[in-house]
Design brief:
Radius of gyration: 26 Å
Number of strands: 21
Distance between the termini: 74 Å
Strand content: 15-25%
Strand order of the largest sheet: 7-8-6-9-10-11
Number of helices: 18
Largest sheet: 6 strands, parallel
Helix content: 25-40%
Oligomer: single chain
Length: 519
């Protein structure tokens, strides 16, 4: 009997709760139900909003449900609870459950205990996903059967019984997952450490301590890969129990991959330098991706041939949402870099381009200091468009406007699909001039047909409706009669600006005598 089989047998009579039905839990719930284990699904969504297909499937197989506002109360009647990765380990309710004797764990924690094959794990503030994927691609190029999981790929615990000792598991782990983990991988990689997720962890100390769990429980036969160019990461070097490998863009390593002055990626060990691939032969752009390659090479060195590394470098097109080239329209290249949710990621993305660009940014505020971005933004950004919770953050905006040549910006815009695309078109045509008070002063006119055509070219689809209002130039909306309206701000009563707060202003807009109808 394998270790995984023994585990499932040992909990046969336990009552197991699953908080949430996201990617890491849905398939795992199916596995537990198939083994006859008592399952309780705990979800904040009430029955009316819980996915109907999942509710029908799981209830038919015998699952119980605790839904709605007090959904966590039922976990005190469970023997084991799997928390979703997004739920903070030190959540007061989870703490009370542990104190009451409930076993609180996670899919990754149990997988680490049961994994039968070599395990590679990557964490860090930036670069985790690309590095994890590169390690996976390198190993696959060598003919390995690779299981990719954690924050990317799929849940691995549901398939742990199908894995063999000759396979490889490669996982990306966040601080939210690592904070409760008490087992470390065979190969641990920390890409870098900079402020992130402080809205949850509260302090850098807790954030870093969570990352330390990746290497804290390694043995003498393990490998640890650290960033020689990142001070916070190198502070962890004394913790390393096995072989320490350091990668460096500046050549600051005596064992690991580094970038030579001539642009060649090399590996040094015991004084011997081996050339691998030139940075110009790496398909995905940006010096940060060179850094990602150095990291991944350091993790697999000695297991993967140089030929496999070179072939991957020349063919691998990158990971979705990471400076992902979308399309070129009218000579304008559109990139998706929506993974850039921290200042260091934003700066890395901006530094990948040789010219000033227009960027659309903003969203959830993670309570990270934005000061480090100011110089890079002013150097690299022509027009800065801010959306979401971070848009009206006065401190953040001040960081961009206090230096010379500050980028244009605006806020108070709904972060919707149509808003983002149409605003980008406006910015491209020079219609937007942002002011610190968030007002707009258009300098061009456009007909309905022209606007429709531009949105169609930029998005690849013809607009039929919009769920956001666009202050500035012309504000366009569509009502139920499919008639298009525009507001010429220059002719309106408040000629200097017009800010639309939300859909509740629809009646006022219809009644405004300054509104005209395009047939």
């Amino acid at each position: 009997m394998t270790k995984a089989q023994r585990f499932f047998t040992s909990i046969k009579d336990k009552r197991v709760g699953f908080i949430g039905t996201g990617v890491s839990h849905t398939q795992l719930i199916r596995v537990f139900l198939s083994k006859g284990i008592k399952v309780v699904i705990l979800d904040k969504k009430d029955e009316d909003h819980f996915p109907e297909d999942l509710y029908s499937e799981f209830s038919a197989k015998g699952a119980e449900f605790s839904l709605g506002e007090n959904y966590l109360d039922e976990m005190f009647n469970c023997d084991i609870v799997f928390r979703t990765p997004g739920m903070y380990f030190n959540n007061p309710m989870l703490t009370k459950a542990r104190e009451a004797g409930v076993v609180v764990t996670s899919e990754m924690e149990v997988f680490f205990d049961l994994c039968p094959c070599k395990l590679y794990a990557v964490t860090g503030s930036d670069g985790k996903t690309t590095t994890t994927t590169l390690i996976s691609e390198f190993l696959k190029a060598e003919g390995k059967r690779v299981h990719l999981g954690g924050n990317i790929g799929k849940a691995l615990l549901p398939i742990v019984e199908t894995m063999s000792e000759t396979d490889a598991a490669v996982v990306e782990l966040s601080s939210f997952q690592l904070i409760s983990m008490r087992k470390s991988p065979d190969v641990a990689v920390i890409t870098n450490i900079s402020p992130n997720h402080l809205d949850v962890h509260g302090t850098m100390e807790e954030y870093i301590d969570a990352k330390c769990n990746l290497i804290r429980h390694q043995n003498a036969f393990s490998k640890t890969v650290l960033n020689a160019d990142n001070e916070e990461t190198m502070k962890l070097a004394p913790m390393v129990r096995g072989t320490l490998v350091k990668f460096s863009l500046s050549g600051n390593t005596d064992r690991g991959a580094f970038l030579r002055d001539d642009g060649m990626l090399c590996y040094i060990d015991k004084g011997k330098v081996t050339e691998i691939v030139h940075k110009e032969d790496i398909r995905i752009p940006g010096i940060h991706n060179v850094d990602n390659y150095l990291t991944a090479i350091s993790a697999v060195w000695g297991e993967v041939s140089i030929e496999s590394i070179v072939n991957t470098a020349m063919t691998f097109g990158g990971v979705e949402h990471r400076i992902e080239f979308v399309r070129e329209v009218d000579g304008v290249k559109w990139y998706n870099d929506s993974i850039a949710t921290s200042p260091t990621r934003v700066m890395a993305g901006l530094n990948s381009f040789d010219q000033k660009i227009i960027i659309i940014a903003g969203g959830y505020d993670k309570k990270i200091p934005y000061e480090p971005m100011a110089d890079t933004v002013n150097e690299k950004v022509k027009i800065l468009i801010l959306l979401g919770a971070t848009g009206p953050n006065a401190a953040m905006l001040a960081n961009f406007t206090e230096t010379a040549g500050a980028a244009n910006y605006f806020n108070d815009v709904s972060a919707s699909y149509w808003a983002a695309n149409a605003i980008a078109i406006c910015a491209k045509l020079g219609w937007i001039n942002g002011y610190p008070d968030g007002t707009f002063r258009p300098d061009k006119n456009v007909t309905r047909a022209e606007l429709m055509a531009m949105i169609n070219r930029a998005t690849g689809r013809a607009p039929k409706s919009a769920d956001a209002f666009l202050p500035g130039m012309k504000t366009w909306i569509d009502n139920t009669s499919d008639k298009w309206y525009y507001l010429d701000v220059q002719e309106a009563t408040n000629s200097h600006s017009y800010t639309v707060k939300g859909s509740e202003t629809w009646t006022a807009l219809n009644a405004d005598p300054n509104w005209s109808l395009y047939e």
